[in-house]
Amino acid sequence: SPNKTPETQIDGNLLIAQSLFRAGVRVMFGVVGIPVTSLANRAVSLGIRFIAFHNEQSAGYAASAYGYLTGSPGILLTVSGPGCVHGLAGLSNSTINCWPMVMISGSCDQKDVGKGDFQELDQIQAVKPFVKYSIKVTEIKHIPGDVKTVLSSCVFSRPGACYLDVPTDVLHQTVTESVANELLTVSDQNQILEETLANLEVGKAASVLRNAKRPLIVFGKGAAFARAEDSLKRLVDRTGIPFLPTPMGKGLLPDTHELAATAARSLAIGQCDVAVVVGARLNWLLHFGEPPKWSEDVKFILIDVSKEEVELRKPCVGLVGDAKRVLDRINLEIKDDPFCLGRRHPWIQAIMKKAKENVSRMEVQLSKDVVPFNFLTPMRIIRDAILAQGSPAPILVSEGANTMDVGRAVLVQTEPRTRLDAGTWGTMGVGLGYCIAAAVASPDRLVVAVEGDSGFGFSAMEVETLVRYQLSVVVIVFNNGGVYGGDRRNPEEIGGPYKDDPAPTSFVPGAAYHTLIEAFGGKGYLVGTPEELKSALAESFFARKPTVINVTIDPYAGSESGRMQHKN
Ligand code: ADP
């Protein structure tokens, strides 16, 4: 009728934002531009925080880490074509680390596909190797259902990345508000995929464990993702079995626990006869579970949410399911017929003795104040400053070759999910993205990055992002003038017309990285002595403002490729 006001129209941009909000999304990371700027603005207006980056690669790393830290999918928004391609870094990193994330990319108008449209790319094809699942939204009515599907697929079973492709024409289509509400309500009722615990050989696992002479519990970032810390604690308390965390498993139980076998790693994995491996793959990081690092006849009890993973490793006992739920079942089983190794058990004695020896040997090196700095002296000072923060413990972000290797051994993790590092792929350049994700996910915690100058350089412009959002992040750059430090070439290897170029491993010596953040109003420090470092840490940890501490390290300290020299 002529006096009836026309109903409000909802476009694709708003409907996506509404669908995300209804599904619980409160944070997005990304880079805006054609055709997704309005989508980001709509999301913000609904109450979703949009963290705008300089580069989709860093934003993608942030989304992946956010998914890991919070347990809910991290969202990455990108433009079409090149934006989507830059986003592949985050997408692949997410899937390889088993972290849930969804990349949403705009794409060109469906009617212009194949004609060379602006930023045209077959994005569904491009993401294929890196995702669990992808969907192209072909019309506005599919938006709520498709959003729900990618969000739930990425957390289902083994977490990973999913992709949602939104063509420009779909973003611009409209439906009336009442149709939109109806679509949203229908998708609200979509069944959330849920894991069922199949018949588990819990009895067998408990009996193998009970009969072990030298048992070990190994746990990784899958157990951290599952928030299995209380269940692990119960198992360790009840059985007295020593444990070994993988790098990102560190902190699920405190590194300072007397049954921590971290400092006796080679002995623990080389001599254990039964290893319960929880949420950690027996991949290169764990020497494939094979000799010579592991003994020939070690029996594995493998707990993993992924059936494929368990089938691949052919363990003695495979328990497919969520780490926390499976551990709770094992704990119940053991409770009925308890056993505990006790501190005087020869295996426990051997591990504790070895760990003590290694720790005191390391402490001797650590206690020296070496100037110009090697890696150990500043790492000790940073360790002590982090520990002095108490609880809630800072989140540590770590990358680099020597910096990460030394940091893993020296820095102490006391709380779960407080360590983010280069991960399963050894990805360099994740640091700033991870810092931003950690600060956004845990505003109550200080975030401290300890990274090499090379790792930092991949995404150094994101220090502006730290300043813009005033995130509580202190980035400590171990500046040794390059990848692995100075020019380590044998003079006989240097020749040819470009022999006078800097070595491929070298950067400008003495680079003033601290001034980079000052360009945006952040705080920078240049330090080269223990006193200077201590004072910069004290000030910046107290201020909790975006900071870069540029630590001058002897360019010839450390070794090329860290501990991975044999592969380079
Ligand atoms: P790390 O690098 O710490 O060794 P990995 O990334 O190699 O850990 O392994 C993590 C494993 O955890 C993956 O195989 C993944 O399938 C598994 N996983 C992920 N979520 C869960 C969960 N909720 N319960 C059990 N296992 C999980």
TrEMBL record:
Superkingdom in the source lineage: Eukaryota
Keyword Lyase appears in the UniProt entry: yes
Cofactor(s) the protein requires to work: Mg(2+); thiamine diphosphate
Primary enzyme class: lyase
Reported function: Catalyzes a carbon-carbon cleavage reaction; cleaves a 2-hydroxy-3-methylacyl-CoA into formyl-CoA and a 2-methyl-branched fatty aldehyde.
Assembly and binders: Homotetramer.
Homology family: Belongs to the TPP enzyme family.
Protein name per its UniProtKB record: 2-hydroxyacyl-CoA lyase
Organism listed in the record: Papaver somniferum
Organism taxonomic ancestry: Eukaryota, Viridiplantae, Streptophyta, Embryophyta, Tracheophyta
